[in-house]
């Protein structure tokens, strides 16, 4: 059994974390898959998806601070669009996730949520979810 679905995310501000756990859970439950895997993918080069804490809003804030320290805007960048810092963060964090489905549900830790990360917003973005299993 397999199912592909897509949803949109509207981001606010240049950098933004949007909790997409609910949308991914909906895609898993609509697929009817009980045992399998779920791939969450975003087809953008200045955004990313990640699993991280969903309880304390200071965690996304602190991760953004760390990413800004790792990849600040640099005068030496060549890319004419001027958003190479965002492209770098996208590559560091990644454009896809593989998650486990068991008993019809996503296997996530108590404090884990699935996040869409914007690095060059605000924009409307897409997230695609492929669910596979039986
Ligand atoms: Zn660019």
What does this structure look like?
- A hairpin with a 2-residue loop joins strand 5 (96-102) and strand 6.
- This protein has a single domain (2-72, 82-133), classed as Jelly Rolls, CATH 2.60.120.460.
- The chain is elongated and about 50 Å long.
- Helix content is 25%, strand content 39%.
- The model has no long low-confidence stretch (mean pLDDT 97).
- It has 134 residues and is of the alpha+beta class.
- Bound molecules: zinc ion.
- Zinc ion (ZN) binds at residues 79, 81, 83, 87.
Q: What global shape is seen?
A: elongated
- Helical fraction equals 25-40%
The CATH superfamily turns out to be: YjbQ-like
- Work out the strand percent: 35-45%
Q: Uncertain spans, ≥5 residues at pLDDT below 50?
A: none
- CATH C-level class is Mainly Beta
Write the layout of secondary structure elements.
Elements: E1 2-10, E2 16-19, H1 21-31, E3 36-41, E4 47-53, H2 58-70, H3 84-93, E5 96-102, E6 105-106, E7 112-118, E8 124-133
Antiparallel strand pairs: 1-8, 2-7, 3-5, 3-8, 4-7, 5-6
Give descriptors for this structure:
134 residues, alpha+beta, Jelly Rolls, 5-stranded antiparallel sheet, 3-stranded antiparallel sheet, 3 helices, binds zinc ion
């Amino acid at each position: 059994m397999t199912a592909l679905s897509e949803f949109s995310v509207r981001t606010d501000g240049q950098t933004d974390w949007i909790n997409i756990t609910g949308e991914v859970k909906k895609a898993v439950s609509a697929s009817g898959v009980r045992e399998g895997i779920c791939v969450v993918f975003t087809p953008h080069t200045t955004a990313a998806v990640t699993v991280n804490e969903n309880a304390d809003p200071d965690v996304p804030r602190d991760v953004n601070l760390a990413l800004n320290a790792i990849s600040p805007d640099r005068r030496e960048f060549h890319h004419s669009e001027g958003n190479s810092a965002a492209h770098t963060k996208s590559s560091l964090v990644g454009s896809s996730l593989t998650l486990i489905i068991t008993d019809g549900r996503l296997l996530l830790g108590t404090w884990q949520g699935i996040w869409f990360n914007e690095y060059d917003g605000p924009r409307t973005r897409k997230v695609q979810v492929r669910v596979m299993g039986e």
